[in-house]
Design a protein that fits this description.
With about 325 residues, the chain is mainly alpha-helical. About 75% of the residues lie in helices and about 0% in strands. The protein has 13 helices and four strands. The longest helix has about 35 residues.
Length: about 325
């Protein structure tokens, strides 16, 4: 009788996971379709705003993955900046101004750096992990500021001419970047969702709760942390490359501590309840900042701080808790 009950519970759990995956995939696909369908009718300023928000949402998605492991990185600006400079330098220095190759360069460079630094970072936890990530980010910032060939504090322009070898004009670049950012956000969100549902993904939350028990079960905590750190870095690098292409200019501020702190802030603001939460939080943050800076240029930081404070006070679990509350009702 007990064996039958256990088997039925296992089948029921598998069915629930399958339904959850179908629901998440369907929701992500629906949102992607809405974004692409609405693109021709949106004003250019909103397309630009959404593109930057989606690009930064990739960084926040990676941070959410780290937070589910019990880690907070104050240095994601390192990989965001590396991804941005890798994409920009491929066009400006090496003369390869193809969007696909520039994004690929962002991913490859950040993956290579994270693969090396991750060996060290996987050994640390809590405040030591956070401060070490911040230190590496500031090292990159210092190098960029003192490198005249890369424009020093002024940075340089990002040149783009083709995508997959097809020529794109200046009037269509904005739409191409938006479609590309939307597709990247869809693939990244679905990929992270599948990863979190896997054995290794579930180990992440176990590591956060009790590392000792995870080791007793025969799993490697350091390996789990290393893989999550690597994935979060790759997402940050891709986000940096997309943001650099959309903005058309790159400077060392992308690697500064304030940029890293902003990503952490948006992650807390978004919540970690869903892979869609980082993109929602990033869109809300960029929208509030944009309108506050436009209509209250001298008080935009105060308005942004008040808005964020109200959200944290009334939605301590992040913006995504609104959907949970509605579902409960």
């Amino acid at each position: 009788m007990k064996i039958g009950s256990g088997a039925s519970a296992l089948i029921s759990g598998s069915d629930m996971r399958a339904k959850s995956e179908k629901h998440t995939f369907g929701t992500l696909l629906f949102v992607l379709g809405v974004l692409l369908a609405a693109m021709p009718f949106l004003p250019q300023w909103s397309i630009f705003l959404l593109t930057v928000a989606l690009a930064k949402g990739l960084v926040v998605l990676g941070l959410m993955l780290l937070m589910r492991t019990g880690l907070v990185s104050f240095g994601q600006g390192l990989y965001y900046g590396l991804g941005a400079y890798a994409a920009a330098m491929l066009g400006s220095v090496f003369g390869v101004a193809d969007v696909a190759l520039m994004i690929l360069a962002s991913v490859v460079v950040t993956a290579a750096v994270a693969a090396v630094l991750g060996l060290l970072m996987a050994r640390y936890r809590h405040i030591f992990f956070a401060m070490l990530t911040l230190a590496f980010s500031m090292v990159l910032y210092g190098l960029l500021v003192n490198t005249a060939a890369l424009g020093s504090t002024d940075g340089f322009k990002v040149a783009v001419h083709t995508i997959f070898g097809i020529q794109i004009g200046e009037s269509t670049q904005l739409y191409v970047f938006f479609a590309l950012a939307s597709a990247f956000a869809f693939l990244a969100a679905w990929g992270v969702h599948r990863y979190l549902a896997s054995h290794l993904g579930r180990l992440s939350m176990a590591v956060r709760d009790n590392e000792l028990r995870v080791e007793y079960l025969g799993a490697s905590v350091r390996r789990t942390v290393y893989i999550n750190y690597l994935l979060s870095s790759i997402l940050a690098g891709a986000g940096g490359g997309l943001a650099a292409l959309a903005i058309g200019h790159i400077d060392p501020d992308a690697a500064y501590w304030s940029a890293s702190g902003e990503f952490v802030f948006v992650t807390v603001l978004s919540g970690t309840g869903s892979v869609m939460a980082p993109f929602l939080g990033s869109m809300v943050f960029e929208t509030i900042r944009s309108f506050a800076a436009q209509y209250f240029p001298n008080l935009w930081q105060v308005i942004l701080g008040i808005a964020m404070l109200l959200i944290i006070l009334f939605l301590p679990g992040g913006l995504w808790t609104m959907f949970r509350l509605e579902r409960t009702r």
